[in-house]
Amino acid sequence: MRITLINPNTSRAMTDKIGRAAREVAGPDVEIAAVCPAAGRGPSAVESHVDEAYASVAVIEAIRADLARGGSDGYVIACFGDPGLDAARELVDVPVVGIAEAAMHVAALAGRSFGIVTTLSRTLGRARDLLARYGAERACVAAYGSGVAVLDLEDSGSAAFAEILGWCERAVDADGADTIVLGCAGMADLCHRLEARLGVPVVDGVAAAVGLVTAMARMGVGVSKRDEYAAPPRRRGGGDDALVLGAPPSAPDVPTSETAATSDVDSVRT
C-alpha cells in the first residue's frame, strides 16, 4: 500500500519531519511518500487565507503529478486548514483525508471533549469553520492560538514546546478538555512529549489521518463519485480548467506543474 502525504508548504525540513511521524504509525506494508511543492510553487507556510488558496493549488498539482506516476492508495493533506480537500476528492476515487478532519474525529473518540492548540490566532476562524463542518462544535471546549509561527516548528528543539505546552495545560485545567488536538502538522513530533506532561491523550492529525486512510484503503472505502465529488467537468476550450486538467497558465521562468510537484519527493518504504 502506498500513501502520499502532501505538505502544501514548501518547507523540505518540515515535510521530512511530518513523513517520519507518519511512518511511525504506518504498518510494515505501507509506503509513505511525503511530498511538498518546490519553492515558488506553494506558500512557505500556511498562515492566512491567501496562503491557503495557494496551498489548495499545490495540493491539486501534487495529486495530478502522483497520478501521472501511477497514483497512490490514499492521500493525506498535512495542513490543519485541510486546504484543497474537496478538490482533491474530485480528482481520485481513493481515500483523501485532511489532518484537521482526522484529528477532530479521533479526539472525539478518545474523550467527551477536546481542546485545539494551533499556531497563530488568525487561523482560529478557519479551525472553527472546520469544527462546524465536521460536526465537532459541541465536543470542542477550547481553541487557542499559541503565537508560534509555522516555520518556528521546523526545529524540534526550539522554544515552541514550552509555549504550546502552556496553552495545552490551560485547555485541560481551565476548560476541562479530555483530549488535545494539535493544530499544525509541524507539531507532530511534539505529541508524545506533550502527552507525558499533560496526562491526557494528545492527537496529532498526521498520525490520525494516516491511520484513517490506511484503514479505509484496507476496507475498500474510497471517495463516492455519485455527484459532488465526481470528476470535474471538462468544458469546451478548457482554458479556465488549466489548473485541474492541464498545465498551469504559462508564465516566464516558471517550471511546469509536473516539475514542481515531483522535484521535492521523499518516498521511503517502511
Q: Mean pLDDT, nearest integer?
A: 89
> What is CATH's topology name of the largest domain?
Rossmann fold
The sequence of SSEs as H and E is EHEHEHEHEHEHEHEHHHE
Q: Could you give the distance between the termini? A: 11 Å
Total helix count? 10
What is the 3D shape? Answer: globular
The largest beta-sheet arranges its strands as: 4-3-1-2-9
Question: How many individual domains?
Answer: 2
Helix percentage: 40-55%
Radius of gyration of CA atoms, rounded to a whole number: 18 Å
Topology:
Elements (H helix, E strand, L loop, with lengths): L1 E5 L5 H14 L5 E5 L13 H20 L5 E4 L7 H7 L4 E3 H12 L3 E5 L5 H10 L6 E6 L14 H14 L5 E5 L7 H8 L3 E3 H15 L22 H4 L11 H6 L2 E5 L1
Parallel strand pairs: 1-2, 1-3, 3-4, 5-6, 5-7, 7-8
Antiparallel strand pairs: 2-9
Helix pairs in contact: 1-8, 2-3, 4-8
Q: Care to describe what's here?
A:
The chain has about 270 residues and is of the alpha/beta class. It has two domains: about 1-100 and about 210-270, 3-Layer(aba) Sandwich (Rossmann fold); about 100-205, Rossmann fold, CATH 3.40.50.12500. Helices cover about 40% and strands about 15% of the residues. It has ten helices and nine strands. The protein is globular, with a radius of gyration of 18 Å. The N and C termini lie close together (about 10 Å).
